[in-house]
Amino acid sequence: MVQDISRSIDACASHYGADAAAMKAYLINGQAKALALPNRGPMKFDEEGNIHPDILNVYSEFGFYIIEDVLSEEELNDIKADLAKMRENFPVHMGAKVDKFGRPALGVGNKAPNLQWARPLSDPLGGSDMFNGRHQVKLFEPKAADDAPPAVPLYLSGSLQFSEACLRVYGHPDLLKLTEVINGPDFVPFTEGLFIKDAGVGAAVSWHQDGDTHWDHPDFDQDIHGFNFMGQVYGSTAVNGVWVIPGSHKIGRADITKLVEEAGTERLPDAIPIICNPGDVVINSRQIIHGSFANTGFEPRLSINFGFHKRSSVLNVRGAGMHAEAAIMDENFIDTRSRLIGLAIDARRQRFPHEIPYHYAPFSERQDEFKWTPETLSSLKDYNLMDLSI
User: Fold this and answer.
1) Among 69, 216, 232, 247, whose Cα sits 20 to 30 Å from the Cα of 280?
2) 245 is in which domain, residue-wise?
3) Looking at the DSSP assignment, which residues form a beta bridge with residue 228?
């Protein structure tokens, strides 16, 4: 069942002045088109226990698929409890070293990036040189309320070092099975983080494609830059969610500036929103054109993001430096970063003993090396300096 967001649609449209009617129609029509696509349903398997080919074929066609009810209510409650603890430990304001209780704030002292901030309802990346300039256009920035804070959280990088519940999601056996089918049994990590779109203040993320290094690769295909999972804690709507252009993961690098100019508006006509309920997990190609508008609505969105690559896409490649240090990603580098998979599988096994744990082939002879204890979390500090960014 899709939640009624009519109030949020009206609130969002009201920020667009003379374009209010056009924005309202865009949101309503986009929602209808999204719900009409055949790319959602529970995880299903064939008679041999393999991921059902229907999921793989539809994902290949559209570049994204909504896997319904992956995260149980019990697991969502674990995640929400961790999120509440983390938010209590956020810096009291952007740049602060302490939280509201005077404790060292989350991530203080880390070398790797962690909590990123933005001005309420702004598009901090659009039209900038950040992330190698892939956010080519700046989206409309609505006026925030007069009592809005000067900056709000936007993204928490390296989230697995701060949340055991998020680490357990990372080790979900069904999601890892799907990863294996798409990227091969020797798949490798990418990066992990939390996208935060608080109601009424959440920032926009301009239209872009992920990926930087392989657009001109002789073996280019729709999977060469990997994919992301997006676990939805509160759900995702046409107002607060990610919009995508279905099928655009196959076209190569797009000239988004030209697309906006040709459309005469930032409301790209072929884009649709990803509509999800709490507990759903989206898989989306990193090459799909996607973005999100400022969250002027009443519903928050919090996405647990994590992605994976084909080993052949990263082995002995210099990292793009967008999410971590630019380094040559050799076998030792990849092996060290992949330990998070082993730890996640064991952490999940302990919390959900009724599940059959995923078997990660590269560690088939080393399973005993990866034993999770609560004390292990502190050992993950700055692990995201080794994100496999391409």
Assistant:
1) 247
2) 6-386
3) 284, 307
